[in-house]
Amino acid sequence: LVPPFSEIQSSLIPKNKANNTATIHWYQLNDLKDGAKYEVRISYPAITPADFQLKILNKCKTENNLWSYTLQLSAECTGVSNLKGIEFQPVTYNLVLETLYFGFLFYQAYKIVIAILLVLCIGQFLLVPYIRNLIKKEV
After folding, report:
1. pLDDT tens-digit profile of 18-66?
2. Which of 11, 16, 46, 118 could make a disulfide contact with 87, Cβ separation 3.0–4.6 Å?
């Protein structure tokens, strides 16, 4: 996974009471800048009762002064489902690495922020003066 935005879809079989061993997946988070903020998040269907564990294990500096991390991902079956045998089925998940701008703004959200700012500026500099002129003409 590489910033500013990377996404992987995969599946694994979670650890459960009958099967005490869990599938473990390993991922490399490459080309991360020192001091920058990132978010790793996972999404999966709510129909599969599982808790995911994400652990960052290794950290090393690459030759071009960037960082590389090793991420371990595993899951454990939790809860109760009304579907028989769901705890033995693989859980499909999406793993996302995103750069956070200004410490909180997602890479994918900057387009929305720009659009909102553009609409606010148009409203402030075009629409508000037009409405003021209409009000002054009627008064």
Report:
1. 767 778 999 999 999 988 899 999 998 877 778 899 999 889 998 888 9
2. 16
Is the pLDDT at 112 greater than 80, yes or no?
yes
CA angle (73, 74, 76) in 5-degree steps: 150
Distance (Å, whole) CA 91 – CA 12: 5
Q: What does the DSSP assignment read for the chain?
A: --SSEEEEEEEEPPB-SS------EEEEEEEEPTT-EEEEEEE--TTS-EEEEEEEEEEEE-TTS-EEEEEEEEEEE-S--SSTTGGGSPEEEEEEEEEEETTTEETTTHHHHHHHHHHHHHIIIIIHHHHHHHHHHH-
> Which residue, 91, 122, 82, is CA-closest to 23?
91
Tokens found for residue 113: 């922020």
The pLDDT of residue 50: 84
